[in-house]
């Protein structure tokens, strides 16, 4: 009996070790992660507006059908990233994620931005240059710092009515994204 | 036996920890569950593993939060053949949406009908409260028509929400999901 209990306890401890190992190693071992999916959109330095989701069809990004999504990838190694443009008069949000899927920044138009978006994305070295005033930036620029050079920007836009969806879609695709 | 317990526990616990209902790193309010750390700059290890597994476009914390319910308020799994009444208020938010998905996150609204409900296009009572019914049978007021058989999940996304500005009245402000008919 004691022998069985000891084996069970050993299994329990080993199981917890396996569990912790899986949880800690999954982000590093995952090949088909959100970054690889975003990269497949061919959206380096330009916004790609995602197709609307339809009933019964695959929804790999788990999109909200009421929202229009524009996604852009930027690499900060050579120069800071810049996102700019005028958004329609509706509710929208902007967020920046790094290649690991970690949120770097997020805000909405209800935070006082209005309809004009001006976002600068800097890596730590560029932020240092910014602090030393060795980089020129435009007034009113939202400054975001990312630890990693590979980042992607998501703009979510909520059309108030389905009838304006196609117009909002074309306005989203006209936003600027890339290196400054 | 030792190896069976270890593998069963290790892989089983990991699977349960990383599904939408989660075991650690999630926040539960009645039938609603949210991974609160997905939009955080420093997510905990479980949330990081969940982000890797889900491969979805997540919301940064300032943008909003997504709740998922796979059970009604009585604890029964949501079934497509049944009609559910979703009643009560939502936390203060600029905009919210509600839609139904299957286990693969495919939208299960009937083709040709709205895919989701949103806070800007709802019929409301004089006190501002909105009543939503989700199910396959014709319903008055706000009706999210779904089709098919089997279990499903409801996704409630609150954009620009004040939900984390104070935890005092949270349980009262997320809607209840009540089964009406099957």
Overview of the structural elements:
- The complex is a heterodimer of chains A (180) and B (182).
- Chain A has two domains: 1-30; 34-179, Sandwich (Immunoglobulin-like), CATH 2.60.40.
- A five-stranded antiparallel beta sheet of chain A has the order 1-2-8-4-5. In chain A, strands 7-6-3-9 form a four-stranded mixed beta sheet.
- Chain A is α+β, with helices and mostly antiparallel strands.
- The radius of gyration of chain A is 21 Å and the shape is globular.
- In chain A, 28% of the residues lie in helices and 30% in strands.
- With 182 residues, chain B is α+β, with helices and mostly antiparallel strands.
- Chain B has three helices and ten strands; from the N terminus they run H-E-E-H-E-E-E-E-E-E-E-H-E.
- In chain B, the strands form three sheets. In chain B, strands 3-9-5-6 form a four-stranded antiparallel beta sheet, with no helix packed on it. In chain B, strands 8-7-4-10 form a four-stranded mixed beta sheet, with no helix packed on it.
- Chain B starts with a helix and ends with a strand.
- The model of chain B has no long low-confidence stretch (mean pLDDT 86).
- Chains A and B meet through helix 1, strand 4, strand 5 and strand 8 of A and helix 1, helix 2, strand 5 and strand 9 of B.
């Amino acid at each position: 009996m004691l022998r069985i209990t000891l084996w069970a306890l050993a299994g329990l401890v080993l199981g917890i070790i396996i569990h912790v190992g899986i949880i800690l190693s999954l982000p590093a071992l995952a090949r088909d992660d959100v970054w690889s999916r975003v990269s497949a959109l061919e959206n380096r330095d330009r916004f790609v507006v995602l197709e609307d989701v339809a009933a019964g069809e695959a929804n790999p990004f788990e999109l909200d059908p009421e929202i229009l999504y524009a996604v852009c990838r930027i690499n900060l190694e050579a120069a800071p990233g810049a996102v700019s443009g005028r958004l329609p008069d509706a509710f929208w949000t902007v967020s920046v994620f790094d290649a690991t899927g970690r949120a770097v920044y997020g805000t909405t138009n209800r935070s006082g931005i209005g309809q004009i978006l001006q976002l600068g994305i800097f890596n730590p070295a560029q932020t240092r240059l910014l602090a030393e005033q060795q980089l020129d930036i435009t007034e009113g620029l939202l400054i975001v710092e990312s630890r990693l050079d590979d980042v992607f920007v998501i703009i979510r836009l909520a059309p108030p009515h389905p009838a304006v969806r196609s117009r909002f879609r074309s306005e989203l695709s006209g936003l600027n994204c890339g290196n400054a | 036996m030792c190896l069976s317990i270890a593998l069963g526990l290790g892989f089983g616990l990991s699977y349960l920890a990383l599904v939408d209902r989660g075991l650690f790193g999630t926040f539960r309010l009645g039938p609603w569950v949210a991974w609160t750390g997905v939009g955080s700059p420093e997510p905990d290890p479980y949330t990081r593993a969940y982000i890797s597994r889900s491969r979805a476009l997540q919301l940064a914390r300032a943008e909003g939060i997504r709740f998922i319910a796979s059970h009604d308020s009585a604890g029964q799994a949501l079934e497509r053949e049944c009609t559910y009444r979703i009643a009560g208020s939502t936390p203060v938010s600029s905009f919210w949406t509600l839609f139904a998905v299957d286990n693969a996150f495919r939208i299960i609204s009937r083709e040709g009908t709205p895919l989701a409900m949103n806070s800007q296009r709802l019929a409301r009572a004089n006190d501002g409260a909105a009543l939503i019914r989700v199910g396959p049978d014709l319903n008055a007021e706000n009706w999210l028509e779904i089709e098919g058989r089997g279990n499903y999940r409801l996704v409630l996304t609150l954009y620009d929400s004040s939900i984390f500005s104070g935890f005092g009245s949270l349980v009262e402000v997320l809607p209840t999901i009540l089964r009406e008919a099957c």
